[in-house]
Specification:
Largest sheet: 8 strands, mixed
Order of helices and strands: HEHEEEEHHHEHEEH
Strand content: 15-25%
CATH class: Alpha Beta
Number of helices: 7
Structural class: alpha+beta
């Protein structure tokens, strides 16, 4: 049982989980996407934004309530309720001036003075509904997963390290592009945000490995 699952189970017991691996095709690497949304499917008073940069259409925001924004998405991917403890980040796609929708989720669990990254998921259904010009812009920026990781890494850069546990080759490729680096453990990856001695890095890594999957 992963650390996240143990924490979620502990909370469920008081009141009456999950490998770090993206799902869906938000990074543009899965086989197919639907045809672009036609103009008749959009609100007449909400024309498609003429985006020139990824920041015009995708923003990653920290939210206080994962259930509200990503509960069903999380359950569809992980068959469990989303974590009810911080920190939660959601990427929002903006199609029109007032039309926004969440297209993913990632969670960070505090561990010592650093963070464990897990529960990452993209909404493949929402992604397929994005019009083709915007999908291309997202793909050119690395995909939803990479955008989400880069944005959250920047916001958590005060921590000495950010850890990931990866069991999927495709997810690993996205993680490496976003800034994660391999360790000697086949599943554990890390972003080092401080200059630390090799001894300190090794000690920190050993403590993370001891946690098991998270």
């Amino acid at each position: 049982m992963s650390l996240l699952q143990r924490l979620l189970a502990r909370r469920a017991t008081r009141s009456a989980e999950t490998p770090f691996a993206p799902a869906g095709d938000g990074d543009g690497t899965h086989a197919s996407v639907d045809a672009s949304v036609t103009s008749s499917q959009r609100r007449a008073d909400e024309p498609l934004i003429e985006a020139t940069t990824i920041g015009d259409i995708v923003r990653v925001e920290e939210v206080s309530d994962a259930e509200f924004y990503a509960g069903e998405l999380f359950r569809r991917r992980f068959r469990a309720d989303p974590p009810d403890f911080p920190r939660h980040f959601v990427p929002f796609y903006r199609q029109g001036r007032t039309t926004y929708r969440p297209v993913g989720y990632v969670h960070y669990t505090a561990f010592e003075d650093s963070w464990l990254c897990g529960g990452l998921v993209m909404d493949d259904r929402a992604y397929r509904r994005i019009p083709a010009p915007h999908r291309k812009l997202i793909k050119d920026a690395g995909g939803i997963a990479e955008i989400m990781l880069r944005a959250t890494f920047a916001r958590l850069a005060d921590a000495p390290a950010i850890w990931g546990y990866v069991g999927d080759k495709q997810a690993e490729e996205v993680d490496l592009r976003a800034g994660f680096r391999r360790t000697h453990h086949r599943h554990v990856m890390v972003v080092w945000n401080r200059e630390l001695s090799e001894e300190e890095k090794a000690a920190r890594l050993a403590r993370v490995i001891a946690l098991g999957p998270f």
